[in-house]
Amino acid sequence: MRNSKNLALLPILFLLVISAARAQIVSTQQQSILTAEAGPESAKINRNRGQKILKKVKENLEKNYYDKNFKGIDLEATYEAARKQIEKLDANWQIFRVIAQYVMQFDDSHTRFYPPSRSVSVEYGFRLQMIGNTCFVVDVTKGSDAEKKGLKVGDIVAGIHQYNPNRENLWKIRYILYALDPLQKINVFVLNDDKTERKLEIEAAIKSMEERREEAKKRSKEFEPYKCHEVSPELIACRLESFLVDKSDINKMMKEIEGHEKLVLDLRGNGGGYVEIEEYLTGHFFDRDVKIGDFVTQKETTERIAKTRGDKAYDGELVVLIDSETGSAAEVFSRVIQIEKRGKVIGDTSAGAVMTGVSIGSTIQRGSGDLMTLTVFGMSVTVADLIMSDGKRLEKAGVTPDVAIGPSGPALLNRADPILAYAINEFGGAMTSEEAGELHFLIPKQETETEDQEEEQ
After folding, report:
1. Residues 322 and 433 both lie in one domain
2. Does 295 share its domain with 177?
3. What is the pTM of this model?
């Protein structure tokens, strides 16, 4: 077994030096795509640019972070330590890791540093998801090296390099492997039926920025805000893909739901979105205004209230489906339904990523005129916390379902959907897991899709 690392407390030189545990499982060919050597002149430029980026990151945190006490972190002392560390480094890939660590000390799901875009990115050919306390492969790209090496949907992943994925660190592993430290090859440890492990060395596919842009355009054109399936005149099942939609999309979905006495609302994989849309949807399920919780920022605490839609509100029975990738606004909606005893929540514990974050783009300028160059980088910052109306926080806790149920490995492999089938049968419908799978409510996300975030009010 590998040594499990606490990714919440990454050392400042994380991955700069290969640990003894990693050295045993990583070949010398498994290099980051960032590890080009820097000459003396470029090293000086890199350090200067890194110091400017670090300073801007600190300013963004000071101005925007919701907790005026910064969780007890001495922002100035840790900034000074990071600044001194950068003085000793030459390459961008080293410097960016130091900056990332400065941000990750908050251990906050909505506060991250995104380095300047590089000319290429990686795809490893598979996607992971936590189901219960087990890390499953939920998608494998056709024709990828992962598929050629025998990785299958439904496989259980016990480790990636020396890291044992779990609910607390899977998002950090993704962040490291895609945004911070993309690798040409990775070792994946798959759990066999006899509880032994087999190691797969998987080669990444390298994608250009143009290829990524074209893929993003295609996904945008194919995006469906929601889909509904009428099981019977009394029962309908609807899947809401995201809260990054318009009110008109919510209105259209609710129009289809109208007239049905029972609703299964599927929020699995819904990473969240706009606070305004979350409140708007919530108002469709109550005949009165409902307090969602207290919105806590640097400057003040205010109540978040979902305004009822009055006679347009849906008054039928409700079941909400969630999983470990249900996040932010989708989690808040689900918990309000629970707290107010408006319906039942079924599935897996949600992501526990319930903060309000904003994306901030920044630029660093060097030179002037025709010789001027701009470095563009980004970060997300948590601008507000949310205390639910029951006085509790969902961050790092998630929504605990009323009925805990998840798919097995074979169900994933066969694209069956036992959770949707269970909910429909609970409402008096008749549907098998295989039939539910044919509705395609669970279409795997693209490998490199990032988590949605709530917007600032």
Report:
1. yes
2. no
3. 0.87
